[in-house]
Amino acid sequence: MDKRACAYSFLYESSSLCDYEIATDELASQTGLAMHYVKHSDLSKLVELIYHANGSMRAKVAITDEDIRYLSRLYDEYVEMVGDLKYFVIPEGCLGACHLHCLRSKTKSIIRLIHKIDQEPNREKRQILHDFFNMLSNIFFYMALVENKNEQINEIKFVSKSYDC
Asked: Does the predicted TM-score (pTM) go above 0.85?
């Protein structure tokens, strides 16, 4: 196949691995975009980690326990800045916060893809990737809250009509 006519060599396989890799590539790209609107220097490191996670489903797991500890520290730092929220908020606010909410949502779709891949025959569950992306989603959420706080934008609590909360 002519490499000029091949965007990605795994595009036509039947496994969900390709979907995962495309989704993580998109998340890394969108995180890079968010760096222009968000005042958190941690995003550059997160882009790198997302790319390490990209190949970690198909090949050698490149996410380490040290990476999880890094995310854990990062999570704690952002929670300390705004407090531990016990309710949902409307995903809006300043431009940076909106980008971060989109990243949070995209990250959850990757978690679903990981779960789907785990159900495929002869697949080894890679718990560290579940942990990585769950923590990353929560970090993006708290980064959004910090971004709004820094811009002096109050969060709007979401009260569900579907659930008794």
From this structure: yes
